């Protein structure tokens, strides 16, 4: 990509559609530092927590996958406990506000 004077910035959005532009959205970016410096201020409008993770283009995707594994694991545990009649769900509401307690 350098030979064509192109820079690449990868990103992961850790938020739902209604959260974009609010304090609850988190955006992870990785890749070209030049691309981040060029587009960073524009991307800041997506939320209050826009993080540049460095030049390793895979970093945003890796952390996104880790977040998804954690979130879905908590969700599955909560639904399993609820089916067993545990009554009280683990504290996952901060990560998944669409779950009713």
The gist of it:
The protein is α+β, with helices and mostly antiparallel strands. It contains 2 helices and 3 strands, in the order E-E-H-E-H. The protein has a domain at 2-65: NAD(P)-binding Rossmann-like Domain (Rossmann fold, 3-Layer(aba) Sandwich), CATH 3.40.50.720.
Q: What is the fold's blueprint, element by element?
A:
Blueprint: E1 9-14, E2 26-31, H1 33-43, E3 49-52, H2 59-83
Spans of 5+ residues with little confidence (pLDDT < 50)? Answer: none
Q: Encode the helix/strand succession as letters.
A: EEHEH
Helix content: 25-40%
Mean model confidence by pLDDT? 80
Distance between the termini: 49 Å
Name the strands of the widest sheet in spatial order: 1-2-3
Give a verbal description of the structure:
Helix content is 36%, strand content 16%. With 101 residues, the protein is of the alpha+beta class. It has a domain at 2-65: 3-Layer(aba) Sandwich (Rossmann fold). Strands 1-2-3 form a 3-stranded mixed sheet. Strand 2 (26-31), helix 1 and strand 3 form a beta-alpha-beta unit. The longest helix has 25 residues, at 59-83. The model has no long low-confidence stretch (mean pLDDT 80).
